[in-house]
Every structure is written in C-alpha cells, then in structure tokens.
Amino acid sequence: MTKILMVCLGNICRSPLAEGILKSKLTSDSFFVDSAGTGDYHIGKNPDSRSIAIARKHGLDISNLKGRQFNVSDFDKFDIIYVMDESNYRNVLLLARNEQDKAKVKFILNEIHPNQNYNVPDPYFGGNDGFENVYHMLDEACSVIATRLQN
Known about the structure:
Distance between the termini: 14 Å
CATH topology: Rossmann fold
Strand order of the largest sheet: 2-1-3-4
C-alpha cells in the first residue's frame, strides 16, 4: 500500500482539501491518504467551513476530517509527503532525520510545474474565490499524482 501525506500550516484549509481530492481519485485498497499541519493551532478541529463548502460543491465530503500536527513518525508512516508551500517545506525538513526522510518531501505543485516550487496560496484570510482557486490547483496536481501512482 502506498501512503501519501498532504501538509499545510494548520491542516484546516489546503491539506484537507488535497487529502479529499486525492482520495477521490485513488482506490482505498491500494492507497492511504492523510493530511497534517506543521502548526498546532487546529488539532482535533474540522476543516475550515469554506474548505468543506468548496469540497462539497465539487462532490467531496471532507467534513469528518480532524486536524493534526505533523510529527517525526510521519516520515516512517508515509512514502510521499506533499507540502503546500515553502514554509511547510522548511518546517517539515527541520524534523527530517536523514536524507531518506528529506527525499520523501515534495512541493505538490511540482507535479504540474516541475522543479518550480510554487506555493499553493493559503486561502484562510481571503474570500471564497481563494478557496475555489486552491481547489482547482490541487485538483489538477492530484490528477497527475493519481495517474502516476496508478501506472
């Protein structure tokens, strides 16, 4: 089974969306997808209501997800760790114990823009358009990820 982790700052906007999107594109018998945040602000909380609404608009239910913080043991549990932005990348790498851990960490948008290290903008302080834009970015990246993983 291939295990993929999506990581953002608080685990209430971008990473739960990415988790829900990728789960919808993969079979649960061969793939496990989860999400986490680098910060501890929203542990045990549901995703932001705007993330839940945008997911629902696109036929996904992420309302049951609960925020959790990324920790060192995630390097052992997951094969691939996708981060949403440069800050998440730095924070995850700070916990890496070796080169093997570091090699698992990737910018999610590099799947559609190779080696560019583009950030998925954090929509938290913006309006609903930001959540819609983030959804489409993540959906495109997750489609590429799913196709690659299944081939």
